[in-house]
């Protein structure tokens, strides 16, 4: 079955440490996204990518970095510069491409819950 | 805020009853999407309704869109305990460098058996 796989499910970060969250999709989607969800809130866009080797900052990109070297993969690194990283991180993909974002449904992984040690 | 806003924030009903959730937004839209999120899981897409559509059905779900009032409603008929989840509406917001999908804060639905 096609879908999006996020790993790990739970992750703990020590002070000053960078951690990387994995996101892989086999839906052959061009666009991929990273969102952050805090308790009782909606999703906030961190980064998105419409094509390999290209990505754009979202609303809360500071303290995060991404890469898009393969169509299937869009890893997110939470750097030590992100002072409040505790949250639920969701990766998504969609068929949106050159026509822009938001015209197609987004498919989500099951998230990674990141906490500070 | 750029977001759509859901109303109510929380809803508790008995199994078999209907549940109605509302979403209001601020700017003109191309489409409006509804998603469901079970506790601790990712979001699942339910329905996409385009700006030139007024109503759309999918199983026990009915979505309406009133672009003049900038609002949408999600109706779940004959609710089941398995419908317990958070429900989010999402609209496209056009930025300087492209679009993004903006999610509201969600309605928490609890269906009691």
Q: Cα distance, first to last residue of chain B?
A: 36 Å
Element-level helix/strand string of chain B: EEEEEEEEEEE
The assigned structural class of chain B equals mainly beta
Largest interface: A-B, 29 and 24 residues
Helix and strand sequence of chain A: EEEEEEEEEEE
Percent strand of chain B: over 45%
Termini separation of chain A comes to 35 Å
Short structural description:
The complex is a heterodimer of chains A (117) and B (113). With 117 residues, chain A is an all-beta fold.
What does this structure look like?
The complex is a heterodimer of chains A (117) and B (113). Helices cover 0% and strands 48% of the residues of chain A. Chain A has no helices and 11 strands. In chain A, strands 2, 4, 5, 6, 9, 10 and 11 form a 7-stranded mixed β-sheet that branches. In chain A, a hairpin with a 2-residue loop joins strand 5 and strand 6. Chain A starts with a strand and ends with a strand. In chain A, 41% of the residues are buried. Chain B contains no helices and 11 strands. Chain B has strands at residues 5-7, 10-14, 19-24, 31-37, 43-50, 55-58, 61-66, 71-76, 85-95, 98-103, 107-112. Chain B is globular and about 45 Å long.
Blueprint of the fold:
The complex is a heterodimer of chains A (117) and B (113).
Chain A: E1 4-7, E2 10-13, E3 19-25, E4 31-37, E5 43-51, E6 54-57, E7 64-66, E8 76-78, E9 87-94, E10 107-108, E11 112-116
Parallel strand pairs in A: 2-11
Antiparallel strand pairs in A: 1-3, 3-8, 4-5, 4-9, 5-6, 7-8, 9-10, 9-11
Chain B: E1 5-7, E2 10-14, E3 19-24, E4 31-37, E5 43-50, E6 55-58, E7 61-66, E8 71-76, E9 85-95, E10 98-103, E11 107-112
Parallel strand pairs in B: 2-11
Antiparallel strand pairs in B: 1-3, 3-8, 4-5, 4-9, 6-7, 7-8, 9-10, 9-11
């Amino acid at each position: 079955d096609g879908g999006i796989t996020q790993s790990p499910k739970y992750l703990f970060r020590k002070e000053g440490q960078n951690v990387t969250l994995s996101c892989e999709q086999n839906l052959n989607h061009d666009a991929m996204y990273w969102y952050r969800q805090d308790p009782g809130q909606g999703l906030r866009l961190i980064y998105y990518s419409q094509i390999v080797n290209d990505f754009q900052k979202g609303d809360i990109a500071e303290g995060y970095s991404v890469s898009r070297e393969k169509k299937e993969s869009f890893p997110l690194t939470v750097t030590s510069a992100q002072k409040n990283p505790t949250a639920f991180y969701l990766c998504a993909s969609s068929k949106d491409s050159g026509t822009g974002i938001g015209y197609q449904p987004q498919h989500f992984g099951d998230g990674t819950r990141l906490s500070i040690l | 805020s750029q977001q759509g806003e859901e109303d109510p924030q929380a809803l508790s009903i008995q199994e078999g009853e209907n549940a109605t959730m509302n979403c209001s937004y601020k700017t003109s839209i191309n489409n409006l999407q509804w998603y469901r999120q079970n506790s601790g899981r990712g979001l699942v897409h339910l329905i996409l309704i385009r700006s030139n559509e007024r109503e759309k059905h999918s199983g026990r779900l009915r979505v309406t869109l009133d672009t003049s009032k900038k609002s949408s409603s999600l109706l779940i008929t004959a609710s089941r305990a398995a419908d317990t989840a958070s429900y989010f509406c999402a609209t496209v917001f056009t930025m300087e460098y492209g679009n993004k999908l903006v999610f509201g804060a969600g309605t928490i639905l609890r269906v009691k058996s």
